[in-house]
Amino acid sequence: MTGNEGKVTLVSAGPGDLDLLTLKAAKVLASADVVLLDDLVNPEIVALAPQARVIRVGKRGGCRSTPQAFIERLMQRYARRGLHVVRAKGGDALLFGRAGEELAALRRAGVRVEIVNGVSSAFAAAAGLGVSLTHRDHCQGVIFVTAHLRDHSEPDWHALAATGMTLAIYMGMSRIESLCATLVSALPTTTPAAVVQWAGSANERRVTGTLGTIAAHARAAGLGSPAIILVGHAIGEAASFANSAASFGVHSHESSIEELRRRA
Amino acid sequence: MTGNEGKVTLVSAGPGDLDLLTLKAAKVLASADVVLLDDLVNPEIVALAPQARVIRVGKRGGCRSTPQAFIERLMQRYARRGLHVVRAKGGDALLFGRAGEELAALRRAGVRVEIVNGVSSAFAAAAGLGVSLTHRDHCQGVIFVTAHLRDHSEPDWHALAATGMTLAIYMGMSRIESLCATLVSALPTTTPAAVVQWAGSANERRVTGTLGTIAAHARAAGLGSPAIILVGHAIGEAASFANSAASFGVHSHESSIEELRRRA
């Protein structure tokens, strides 16, 4: 690469807490000329790229404030001017979030592209609950699935439930009731479940319950998007389940596992 | 927490490259009194905790050099002395790796425990291939599954294949042939597949192919554990698939997407 050859780096901005950025992401941001910022990225991330021009390109939950094609053209335009473009995406850039389309478009355009991994929000949700996603007493793995499909169809919830794996459902809050009702036709109503909103950020809030109760608990607590819905027996190991008094409460980010335990 | 109350922090050490640690992991390591180090963690991580006593507690691939119960007692003992114990685990601590058991043991013992997330190696594998795990033209999610089960049984590969999701298979290299043969009974032989060894580290090596060819390619290239096996049409978007000349070659970490593209 010559000195004036531009490039695009897809940077995983993690779940919100800037301390959950990787060292590599921080270094890349420090060398960015232009930063394209998604809605779900903590806006304070720009402090790590004070030298860069920042462009907000959010398109939250289907309301396309910035069309995808425009974002792709923008990245190509700046890279062709020899600039280092950082495309900051929430969570890990390679899980949902249309990185696949952006990588394909950049490759077609002959633009050099690099990727920096990060922490996806389901991992942060599990950390907040104090639970492994895959406790080996309970399952052999975890499924990360989006409930927000392009054609407004549904994932095959029966097939997913049949695997016996932990489910980590992204973008499911707008239809959590119907989603749980469908899962209940394949899994016991008593299957542990949790909802974690703004996982891994200062605003994190979470409720725990079962497939039969979690939708009502989440609504009662006022939890909405963005949130991760976790389902499965591995989730039943969460500290709050061991503490029946706290089981159906809302826990803020400040409630450490230890605090939950002490309250018991 | 009083000044002399100890605690354990489960720190996700990521896939190898120390730059893929989170800022939070680096801060926690800098405040550790004792670091318990797994085999799959880059040993150079100890440079981030020069003040700490380092104890290697690896138990690679079933040969139990340090029994799990001993590791759990070790953590408790040091925490009870008022020390800050960092348990460094490869990838993200909450995906495989027995964090569930360790969290339960620490909670039972009344030891305060915190969790720091990180990058799991399947994400690094996808980054090396230049591909999203969930390109929305191809799938609605990804399944992280371990092929190494406690009772030497097999995951239900048919049920996993039936979901239509990308498969990210951990710890499958010792039986990649039988694993692919089983998947071929549920998925087309032509389904794209890849193997990435030491993903996200300086030693990263990868091969691409199909369910029908990947086991032979991986063996021919001498790839073994630790490696991630990726299966699914989203993986077919990898840069190396667009380049038939390179499709069956071995790519080192140094082969950037751009270099692969140039060789075409």
TrEMBL record, chains A, B:
EC number: 2.1.1.107
Molecular functions (GO terms): uroporphyrin-III C-methyltransferase activity
Pathway: Porphyrin-containing compound metabolism; siroheme biosynthesis; precorrin-2 from uroporphyrinogen III: step 1/1
Gene3D superfamilies: Cobalt-precorrin-4 Transmethylase, Domain 1, Methyltransferase, Cobalt-precorrin-4 Transmethylase, Domain 2
Ranges where the Tetrapyrrole methylase domain occurs: 7-214
Keyword set includes Cytoplasm: no
Single GO BP term: methylation
Keywords: Methyltransferase, Porphyrin biosynthesis, S-adenosyl-L-methionine, Transferase
Entries under Pfam families matching the protein: TP_methylase (PF00590)
EC category: transferase
Family membership: Belongs to the precorrin methyltransferase family.
Record-linked PANTHER family: S-ADENOSYL-L-METHIONINE-DEPENDENT UROPORPHYRINOGEN III METHYLTRANSFERASE, CHLOROPLASTIC (PTHR45790:SF3), SIROHEME SYNTHASE-RELATED (PTHR45790)
NCBIfam families the UniProt entry points to: cobA_cysG_Cterm, PRK06136.1
Protein name as catalogued: uroporphyrinogen-III C-methyltransferase
